Amino acid sequence: MMNLMIEEKIKEELRKSLNAFKESDNPRLYELIKKVVIDGWNCYEDPFSFAVALDTADMTCPMPEAVGDIVIDLYTVASENQINKGTALNNLGVIFYNDRYGRKDQSKAIEYYNEAAKNGDEAAFANLGYCYYYGSGTQIDYEKAYYYFSKAALKGSAEAMYKLGDMFKCGHYVDKDEDLARTAYVKAISLLEDNSYFIPCTGKAYLRIGDMYYEGIGTEIDLNFALEAYQKAEAAFYEMLRLGDIYSDSSMKHVKNRIAEIMLKKDEYIPQIDWTKKF
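^ that's the sequence the OP posted. Answer follows.
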């Protein structure tokens, strides 16, 4: 619950924000803010839920900086009032990790992720793993990446589990072990399939297991299994592209090429029959 002063401040910021961007650029966001400003929809009882609603209204599309200020204020109020504190802090970290609101500051993102992790947020552990794995806002440190991915995986994070698979596949910090890599990818897929909602890393996990069975990495080549995995990856990447994630484009091309290659290989096994021949 917000105090009256903060509520009035955010109401005024929402009114101003309607003139800060075009409805055509962020249609769902515009409609949501209009409901509050014009229709009088009460959204202040739960600052965390309102922040999430604004933050995810147009998913991966770039968001107006003016709305970024509001979302940051709402998540901050939520964390200060112990309302989904860990997740609110993690989501603040995501805002500063990405450039979606024009607020990119990955060092600051790590600070928020650390605070979120202290409050037990699963995604924060995975996000810290990414920071140390890729050297985002800090130096590359595979030992720390392994530590944080492991913590998140133990909490049931499919994303962290498939990144552990990457570490075993490439030999980052751990000994290179293709069997363990495949085991991690299979476990990640199992975790994904246990969820009733779509998880952004779905395509990447299926792509990796598809590659292993296509190339015979840590297992025998199995084109049927690879094809099934690639087709599931394709469906997931379509969803990511639909949501505006342009970074899924190269992965989609890889998957489509592999599916085409498998279909060609399968055609080679079809016997060529002379239908004019009498039997």
